[in-house]
Write a structure and sequence with these properties.
The complex is a heterodimer of chains A (515) and B (254). Chain A has 22 helices and ten strands. By secondary structure, chain A is an alpha/beta fold. In chain A, helix 11 (264-279) links the parallel strand 1 and strand 2 (284-290). Chain B is 41% helix and 25% strand. The chains are: A alpha/beta (515), B alpha/beta (254).
């Protein structure tokens, strides 16, 4: 418990620093756009209708989806920029997070600015015109000072929203306090989840308090409060940015970026690869919790240098193939086609498979007499199927359904962690499991056979970005990993991270594999 | 006699609806003129045309012989005093800052403004120490005194007032009206006041303009109007306060 906590706290300066940088930038940008727009909207009913409608619409998009949507858009724009200007920009990480959060922060500022300015007593507005103020003087000397408390209240709301939503920037590759929550949820490291939530909530409370001080100062015309709030914010900002600036100055740019998707095995393998590189004296940055497709695109565009993917996943998602010509043909075709398509280099398989397989509790499978997917087809109409968040939309699911004619009573989606719990609590009878998952052995689950070969092979392979294809240092560090991990070793390492007691960190589990 | 304000065939239409029929009116320098009539008569519209708060749909407005269309509105209004019923003191400024707002816009120095503020507080019979207070700390009558002081701060020669005493109690109202009339004399102002109180207009003004239905129906000194007018609308309007005054006089005689 204590070492979990100290491990979590060690990452705090970097994550908090990025969280503050991201939220503050988004808020500043949101303010710069929404404030003038809100003031203009107060004078123009049509603009008010349009802008508030648009901002309201953005608000209805779930924030996680909004963040995810910016990635393909930026990728497209970056591609255009490469064609037109000769160089692109990173579509992953800070930029999509910044844009999505900026949009997200705009509604309360816009709404309050419009309401604040149009809510100024008409008699006072007429007096301002009567004494000879120009429109601009009226705005700066009368309307804005009088609307300031309402506007500040909007800024406070926006700040709290933005800080909360910034935790969702983790899946698009931006370091934030969300790293604690996403990784912690995945590895059932509740200490990390709590640290992430507490840090994010604490930050929101402090910022809200300081902005409240400014709001009070503005409303009661007490410059002291206003200054106290402003200085507090500035000190907080500098304190949060300090470690980032220090790190940037002392290290310079990290030499390599290792990516990982959002589950324990990926964290462990990323640590394993990073460890090999660091042992050779290189600096390595980790970008974990990437979405499945985002990880490949990020590699192809050179935003990450290497990560581990699975042959069946690449086969279905990148090459859009639904057939299953056998393990070796799949690997050979992938090596050739990925190189030709994106310049991506596929190193030799690591030695284990993390295949999609349907799993059941042993006692339940035996009671129903189910050993294979063919047996399952007969019983499926009375059973509930639990899948991870992407399984039901994957071609593997379609292939299994087609090959065996599966039709379940109901289907439910779970975070992988909760999927196993659901099996235990009988909320699901069958789940989509991963063959390298440590919980299969630990929970005494059986994997159902696939006599028709509907599920493709899922050999774990290291992929290297086009720009590192000829990087000897990287290749020398990673190539020896080929064939070095069998499924038992991977299951054990995964279980070390996923189990409830005596948990290990992904880096410690990577140490088990390296031996 | 020189002309301070000339309205030359001005009219005003809002969204296709005529609120003021083409009207001409000449006001000589130094006169105190009251605009009277029921609500919707067009008297406030007429007043706002004089300082450009409203622009005429047709016709032109001349101040001291010059067409006001040739001058930007804000610049024009800094040279004209304006007082209205809602007073409209700026709640985020002190009384002193409110009074000094037009001089500040005109770029007067801080000392000039401070001296002028003291002068004006004396002029409207308010203690000088109210300068540092917020408008919300004053009574309604005091606030309208500040409103008058603000209007006079930049030494305008024309003072426009839109129902200036409408929101005040009768005692305060009478006192402030007398004070404003005295200021008008002392400062040699040309004053135009909109009011719906015909009695007040007859007692205070040199000339009374009667408006009804967006048209100017009469323009004459009070005594002449009291003597009778051929237009029944005007006659009715004047007759009411006159009857009241006669009944009061009867009552006083016993």
């Amino acid at each position: 418990m204590a070492d979990r906590l100290s491990a979590a706290l060690a990452a705090l300066p970097e994550r908090l620093g990025w969280h503050v940088t991201l939220s503050a930038s988004a808020l500043a940008l949101g303010l710069a756009i929404a404030l003038p727009l809100g003031i203009a909207a107060a004078r123009n009913p049509r603009l008010k209708w349009i802008s508030l409608g648009a901002a309201g619409l953005v608000q209805t998009i779930p924030s996680l989806a909004l963040l995810a949507l910016f990635y393909p858009v930026l990728l497209l724009l970056s591609g255009l920029a490469v064609k037109v200007l000769g160089h692109g920009f990173p579509a992953l990480g800070f930029l999509p997070s910044l844009l999505a959060l900026t949009l997200y922060s705009m509604l309360p500022i816009l709404r309050n600015a419009a309401a604040g300015v149009s809510g100024v007593d008409p008699a006072v507005v007429e007096a301002a015109r009567g004494v000879g103020m120009t429109d601009r003087q009226r705005l700066w000397r009368v309307e804005l000072p009088l609307a300031a408390p309402v506007i500040m209240a909007g800024v406070r709301t926006a700040a709290v929203w933005t800080i909360g939503a910034a935790t969702l920037s983790t899946p698009v590759g931006q370091t934030s306090l969300g790293d604690y929550i996403f990784s912690g949820l995945q590895t059932e490291d509740w200490v990390a989840v709590l640290v992430g939530c507490a840090a994010s909530a604490g930050l929101a409370l402090i910022v809200d308090g300081l902005l409240g001080l400014i709001e009070g100062g503005v409303a009661r015309r007490e410059p002291k409060r206003l200054w106290a709030g402003g200085v507090g914010l500035l000190i907080g900002l500098l304190a949060a940015l300090g470690p980032l600036a220090g790190a940037a100055l002392s290290h310079g740019k990290p030499a390599y970026v290792i990516g990982a998707k959002n589950f324990s095995e990926q964290y462990i393998l990323a640590e394993l690869m990073a460890g090999k590189l660091e042992a050779g004296g290189a600096t390595v940055q980790r970008r974990v919790n990437l979405g499945s497709v985002i990880a490949y695109r990020a590699l192809a565009s050179g935003e990450i240098d290497a990560y581990v993917d699975y042959s069946g996943t690449l086969w279905a998602n990148i090459l859009n193939r639904t057939d299953n010509p056998g393990r070796q043909v799949v690997l050979d075709t992938l090596r050739k086609d990925l190189k030709a398509r994106d310049g991506v280099v596929l190193l030799a398989p690591l030695g284990f498979e993390n295949a999609y397989a349907l799993a059941m509790r042993r006692d339940r499978a035996e009671a129903l007499g189910v050993k294979t997917l063919a047996d399952l087809a007969a019983k499926a109409p009375q059973l509930t199927m639990g899948g991870d968040l992407e399984f039901f939309s994957r071609p593997e699911w379609a292939a299994v359904v087609k090959a065996y004619g599966l039709s379940f009573k109901s289907k439910r989606q779970f975070q992988p962690t909760f999927m196993y719990r659901a099996l235990e609590s009988r909320e699901a009878d069958v789940i989509s499991a991963f063959s390298s998952d440590g919980r299969i052995a630990a929970d005494d689950l059986v994997l159902l056979g696939d006599p028709k070969g509907a599920l493709p092979p899922y050999d774990a392979v290291i992929l290297v970005s086009p720009k590192r294809a000829g990087d000897q240092r990287l290749l020398d560090a990673l190539t020896p990993l080929s064939g070095s991990i069998d499924v038992k070793a991977m299951q054990a390492a995964n279980y070390a991270v996923d189990r409830d007691t005596g948990k290990k960190s992904p880096a410690e589990a990577a140490g088990l594999l390296a031996r | 006699m020189t002309e301070a304000i000339v309205l030359d065939q001005v009219s005003k239409t809002y969204g296709g609806q005529a609120v003021l029929a083409p009207t001409s009116l000449t006001i000589a320098k130094g006169r105190f003129v009251a605009l009277v009539g029921g609500s919707g008569a067009g008297k406030t519209t007429l007043l706002k045309l004089m300082n450009g708060l409203s622009t005429p749909s047709t016709g032109r407005v001349l101040l001291d012989g010059a067409d006001i269309a040739g001058k930007p509105g804000p610049e024009l209004r800094r040279g004209i005093g304006y007082v209205f019923q809602e007073i409209g003191l700026f709640p985020h400024m002190t009384v002193g800052q409110n009074i000094g707002v037009t001089p500040d816009l005109l770029g007067w120095s801080a000392e000039e403004i401070a001296t002028r503020t003291d002068e004006l507080l004396d002029l409207v019979a308010l203690p000088r120490e109210v300068a540092g207070r917020a408008p919300s700390q004053l009574s309604g009558g005091q606030r309208q005194r500040v409103g008058v002081a603000r209007a006079l701060a930049a030494r305008p020669s024309i003072l426009l007032m839109d129902e200036p005493f409408g929101a005040l109690d009768p005692v305060t109202r009478a006192a402030l009206a007398d004070d404003v009339r005295a200021l008008h004399e002392r400062l040699g102002l040309t004053t135009v006041m909109v009011t719906h109180d015909v009695g007040e207009a007859l007692l205070l003004a040199d000339e009374v303009v009667v408006m009804a239905g967006g048209k100017l129906r009469a323009h004459a000194p009070p005594r002449e109007l009291l003597a009778g007018h051929p237009d029944p609308v005007v006659a009715d309007l004047i007759a009411a306060p006159r009857r009241q005054a006669e009944r009061l006089a009867e009552l006083a005689r016993g």
